[in-house]
Design a protein that fits this description.
- A 7-stranded mixed sheet has the order 4-10-9-8-7-5-6, sandwiched between helices. The protein has a 4-stranded mixed sheet with strand order 1-2-3-13.
- The chain is α/β, with parallel strands linked by helices.
- 48% of the residues are buried.
- Helix 8 links the parallel strand 8 and strand 9.
- The chain has 14 helices and 14 strands.
- The mean pLDDT is 96.
């Protein structure tokens, strides 16, 4: 099996660096340790094609949004019809009404919604709503969980070691980028996830100042790490006991684990939630959803492109496709098939790993056969260096996964043949790592 040649990608990247900061539009577009990113020409179905003509089976899915695969015919038709009508009006449309109503029908916590354009903006808006409703300022977030790139959100999203995080009962506020205002973290309290006892200690001590507890209900940005049995419901019970709102950040899990998100999958309904990524199949749109009295707290959504007609058309088409019988069952079947393949490779090459499929999200951890239950547990158990070797080697043979995080996305365009070919290629990769 021959490794891909990507000289055109390298040349294009080097030229782009002369004009564009970092040579990429987002830090997500170039993986850590990657000499240069692969420059993509187009996508079709479950595949991407680079400027050198190489074909990749794609499990990155544009960092999550592409749940229908690339160039889905129904999605293109819906968007094209709207493009012919106009792309931006600074006015409501009939389709905006349809989408808002539809979201309140399919998202368990949604009695009312607001629109934004990205997950970062949606979380900023949700925290503002929580503060307006409660009259309190502090937000509890969890170590290793990512809620966006704003100064306040990007706190303790990562660490290289447990020591860097500090003591479990006084976790350090780690600022993760240059130029970040340290004072932006003044109202952030960092807690360990999957630990109800630790959460109650914080709420018991500071609930008079805490507006919300914000969490990924399935911790996907680091790990990934699944909620332990009873944790989500226990966290909600504690929030209600101490008069604090529970915020589920479903930017990743929304529409991927189930049509109604992780809250539907786990049957735990938060007070407020945020969605983005997969809601449109690949267009910019984000949603804040919650209980009517909370959403009517007096915060008004602002933004030139909020509820953009093209994105609204894409969302309606995406939901219509995902609503069809058997869609999520197929995604789960594909995920289970992929996990089974990984487990066979694990035994063959004596590389311990943990793999689990939840809807269209597959969790993969190398270095341990035991599931990590906390971020600290993940840092101690997972072999991140070996996973990075897997990422680079897989890419060289046409399998595209996310770097660092063992997060694999599936789409409705993936097939059993894709999965089987992936495992066949990864057999070579595992023999090398």
């Amino acid at each position: 099996m021959e490794r891909f040649h990507t000289e055109k990608s390298k040349a294009l990247f080097e030229d782009t660096c002369n004009y564009l900061v970092d040579g990429v539009a987002s830090s997500f577009h170039r993986a850590p340790g990657e000499e240069y990113p692969i420059v993509m020409e187009y996508g079709k179905g479950s595949k991407l094609y680079d400027v050198d003509g190489n074909e990749y089976i794609d499990y990155n899915c544009a960092m999550g949004p592409v749940i229908l695969g690339y160039n889905n015919a129904e999605l293109i038709e819906a968007v094209t019809k709207q493009l012919q009508k106009g792309t931006q009006f600074a006015a409501p449309t009939p389709q905006l009404n349809q989408l808002a109503k539809k979201l309140t029908e399919i998202i368990p916590c949604a009695e009312k919604v607001m629109f934004q354009n990205s997950g970062t903006e949606a979380v900023m808006c949700a925290w503002r709503v929580a503060r307006a409703y409660t009259g309190k300022n502090k937000i509890v977030k969890f170590e290793g969980q990512y809620h966006g790139w704003s100064d306040e959100e990007k706190v303790t999203i990562d660490a290289d070691s447990v020591e860097e995080l500090g003591p479990i009962d006084n976790i350090y506020k780690i600022m993760n980028t240059k130029g970040q205002r340290i004072a932006a973290a003044d109202d952030i309290i960092v807690a360990p996830w999957n630990d109800l006892e630790a959460l109650e200690k914080i709420l018991k001590r500071q609930s008079n100042d805490i507006a919300a507890v914000a969490m990924e209900p399935f911790m996907c940005d680091s790990g990934p790490i699944l909620p332990q049995p009873g944790y989500l419901q226990g966290a909600k019970d504690l929030c209600e006991k101490y008069n604090v709102l529970l915020h589920f950040d479903e930017v990743i899990t929304g529409f991927r684990m189930a049509l109604g998100g992780a809250q539907q999958y786990y049957n735990v309904i938060p007070h407020i939630a945020t969605f983005a990524k997969a809601i449109t199949g690949g267009y910019p749109l984000a949603v804040v959803a919650g209980r009517k009295d909370i959403m009517d707290a007096g915060v008004h959504a602002s933004g030139t492109f909020n509820g953009n007609p093209v994105s609204v058309a894409a969302a309606l088409a995406t939901i219509r496709i995902l609503e069809r019988p058997g869609v999520y069952e197929k995604l789960q079947t594909l995920g289970d098939r992929l996990c089974h393949g990984f487990e066979k490779l694990s035994k063959k090459y004596h590389i311990p790993l943990f793999c689990a499929a939840k809807g269209s999200i597959v969790e993969l951890q190398l270095g341990t056969a035991q599931e990590a239950t906390t971020f600290r547990d993940f840092l101690q158990k997972a072999d991140i260096e070996k996973y990075q070797k897997l990422f680079h080697a897989a890419k060289a043979y046409g399998i595209r996964i996310t770097p660092l995080r063992g997060r694999i996305y599936l789409t409705t365009a993936h097939t059993e043949e894709d999965i089987d070919k992936t495992i066949e290629i990864l057999d070579v990769v595992f023999s090398q790592i």
